[in-house]
Amino acid sequence: MRVFINPGHHPGLDPGAVNRDYGVTEADIVRDVGVLVAEYLTAAGCEVKAVQSNNLCGEDAAYTNVCLTANSWPSDIFVSLHCNAATPAARGTEVLVYSRWTQADTLASCILHQIVDSMGTLSRGVKARPNLVVLNSTHMPAVLVEMGFISNADDCRMLVEQQDELARAIARGITDYIQERGE
Ligand SMILES: [Zn+2]
């Protein structure tokens, strides 16, 4: 089973969302969590490729093209990692898919349940977001995990201080899906 991990944004080029109180950026958090997820999946017997790049689908030829790399490998599963941001009160975990009632929807549910159960975050559910390039330009079941809100104090503390538990939960969600499919 090949798993492609795409930590969102690009440290140094695109920080993503920023929490100035804590002095942390989304790009750094998802990079660090992505490294750990890749380690746990490799230990579980998956082939893993991780690419964090300012070039999601051909926008910036100076960097690795994320969707093209996943499609041509080809990967069996695509998982993008992000942190949400909104008002300080907004919190919780949600997982985005191209459309509901698909294999990606099942993968999303597996990851969402593991994060919510393990980290105690609020479940905001699985949502269809067909306009996102990493979801509409990938050829395999693809999900975008909004792990928590960097703009919420409790979620942000989790995102910074509990990265190992968070990564293990994401990896378990992925292996739950693989087992469910019987592969
Ligand atoms: Zn993001």
What is this entry, summarized?
The chain is of the alpha/beta class.
Question: What does this protein structure show overall?
Answer:
The protein has helices at 26-43, 66-72, 103-119, 133-136, 153-161, 163-180, and strands at 2-7, 18-19, 24-25, 47-50, 77-84, 93-97, 123-128, 142-149. The chain is of the alpha/beta class. The chain has one domain: Zn-dependent exopeptidases (Aminopeptidase, 3-Layer(aba) Sandwich), CATH 3.40.630. The strands form two sheets. It has a six-stranded mixed beta sheet with strand order 4-1-5-8-6-7, with helices on one face. Strands 2-3 form a two-stranded antiparallel ribbon. The relative contact order is 0.21. The model has no long low-confidence stretch (mean pLDDT 97). Residues 8-9, 16, 26, 82 line the site of zinc ion.
